């Protein structure tokens, strides 16, 4: 299997661990890993000593060229060449009754050598002191109950963990109906990969789609600076704080619903409809002054002549992407597809406030400059990523920096 990965993926497969070969203390940035396939797998401590970097690009290309030119089986000399190049165990020859030979499957060690940045490990019982002793190339995967427990009881430790290593969480196995959980708590604790049941298009999936629709839908969103450098903050950050953090901009937001357009399916009789507008995020986002990084969720339910109210359309838009003025918000189906011509006209009034660390305009300039200079240097674990769908947006900036003022539904579709 390891050889199939090498031959089929070739240079696209990420094979070199820069943390170990160059002695780095942080993971590479998404820019350094752009266009690469990263394998995730369980990493066993007993084979750590056997881990070795692979050969250069030239050696791999030479090997693949030689393999394509002949369809013959590997000779013993080629076996030794594979060992010297890739550090893989040589395929063993097993004699059969009919004197024919066949290759034995690659050992588990061979596959583990291809897992460079996402070596999943487990610490039982869990200990934060043992976690700090692990390599930054090792990642942790928590089930929903464990992740909830650690986030609630040790939010600061979890933030510190996500600053140096990748952390993933997934729904608990007892969700037989494939329901989902609120991902905003996990994002608020800095977790990078929050897995959801994509077959269930509920409100939590809508939030996930809206959140990662930022940055052109590339799948990476830069976390707020206070979550990337929590130890340098003057005030301790917690996802459970109910009051605004002084280092995170807040917004005085007011949304006035003006009208709707094509809010009832063709040839269907609608008795009434309900428009619900909410903000989602950490508890502090439920206040009158939510964070600039929260999500605004638009939901339209229609009551037909018979039956219960049904979801007609929805849209989840990051607050940073909403500009003041009269705007048209297009609606999407439950699965996330645009409903042609349907939407809401709203009047948005927003005023950003910030701590005494500087004025809003100065902070905007600092954010834009920092984004241009450091976006390519930010380590992989400084972003929140979606492992299923992936230019890094500075979370402390304002919409005018990255999203020009929107005047029509087409603009909204094309630029958000």
Low-confidence blocks of residues? 46-60, 70-75, 90-106, 356-375, 386-416
* Structure annotation, total helices: 14
Mean pLDDT: 75
Q: In which order are the strands of the major sheet placed?
A: 1-4-5-6-7
Biggest sheet architecture: 5 strands, parallel
Strand composition percent: 15-25%
Q: Into which percent range does the helicity of residues fall?
A: 25-40%
What is the CA–CA distance across the termini?
41 Å
- Net shape: globular
Tell me how many strands there are: 15
Tell me the Rg in angstroms: 25 Å
Secondary-structure-derived class: alpha/beta
**Series of secondary-structure elements, N-terminal to C-terminal:** HHEHHEEHEHEHHEHEHEHEEEEEEHEHH
Structure in words:
The chain is α/β, with parallel strands linked by helices and 416 residues long. 26% of the residues lie in helices and 23% in strands. It has 14 helices and 15 strands. The protein has a five-stranded parallel β-sheet. Strands 9-14-13 form a three-stranded antiparallel β-sheet, with helices on one face. A three-stranded antiparallel β-sheet has the order 10-11-12. Strand 6, helix 9 (184-188) and strand 7 form a beta-alpha-beta unit. The longest helix is centred in the last third of the chain and has 15 residues, at 360-374. The radius of gyration is 25 Å and the shape is globular. Residues 46-60, 70-75, 90-106, 356-375 and 386-416 have low confidence and may be disordered.
């Amino acid at each position: 299997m390891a050889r199939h990965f090498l031959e089929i993926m070739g240079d696209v497969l990420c094979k070199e661990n820069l943390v170990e070969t160059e002695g780095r203390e942080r993971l590479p940035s998404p820019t350094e890993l752009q266009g690469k396939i990263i394998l995730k797998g369980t990493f066993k401590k007993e084979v750590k000593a056997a881990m070795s970097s692979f050969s250069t690009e030239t050696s791999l290309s030479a090997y693949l060229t030689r393999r394509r030119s002949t369809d013959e089986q590997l000779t013993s000399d080629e076996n030794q060449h594979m060992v010297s190049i890739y550090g893989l165990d040589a395929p063993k020859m097993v004699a059969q009754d009919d004197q024919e030979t066949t290759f034995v499957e690659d050992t588990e060690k061979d596959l583990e050598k291809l897992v460079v940045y996402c070596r999943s490990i487990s610490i039982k019982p869990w200990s934060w002191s043992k976690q700090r002793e692990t390599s930054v190339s090792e990642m942790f995967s928590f089930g929903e109950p464990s992740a909830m427990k650690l986030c609630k009881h040790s939010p600061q430790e979890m933030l510190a963990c996500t600053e140096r290593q990748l952390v993933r969480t997934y729904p608990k196995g007892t969700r037989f109906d494939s329901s989902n959980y609120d991902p905003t708590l996990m994002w608020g604790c800095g977790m990078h990969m929050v897995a959801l049941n994509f077959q269930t298009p509920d409100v939590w999936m809508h939030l996930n789609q809206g959140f990662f629709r930022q940055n052109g839908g590339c799948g990476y969103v830069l976390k707020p600076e206070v979550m990337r450098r929590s130890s340098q903050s003057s005030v301790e950050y917690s996802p459970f704080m109910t009051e605004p953090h002084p280092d995170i901009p807040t917004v005085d937001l007011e949304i006035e619903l003006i009208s709707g357009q094509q809010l009832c399916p063709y040839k269907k009789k609608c008795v009434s409809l309900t428009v619900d507008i909410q903000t989602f995020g950490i508890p502090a986002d439920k206040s009158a002054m939510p964070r600039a990084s929260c999500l605004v969720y638009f939901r339209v339910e229609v009551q037909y002549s018979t039956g219960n109210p049904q979801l007609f359309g929805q849209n989840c838009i990051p607050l940073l992407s909403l500009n003041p003025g009269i705007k048209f918000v297009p609606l999407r189906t439950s699965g996330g597809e645009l409903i042609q011509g349907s939407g809401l006209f709203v009047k948005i009034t927003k005023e950003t406030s910030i701590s005494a660390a500087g004025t809003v305009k100065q902070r905007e300039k600092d954010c834009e400059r920092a984004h241009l200079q450091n976006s390519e240097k930010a380590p992989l674990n400084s972003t929140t990523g979606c492992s299923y769908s992936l230019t890094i947006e500075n979370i402390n900036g304002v919409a005018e920096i990255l999203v020009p003022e929107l005047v029509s539904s087409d603009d909204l579709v094309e630029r958000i």
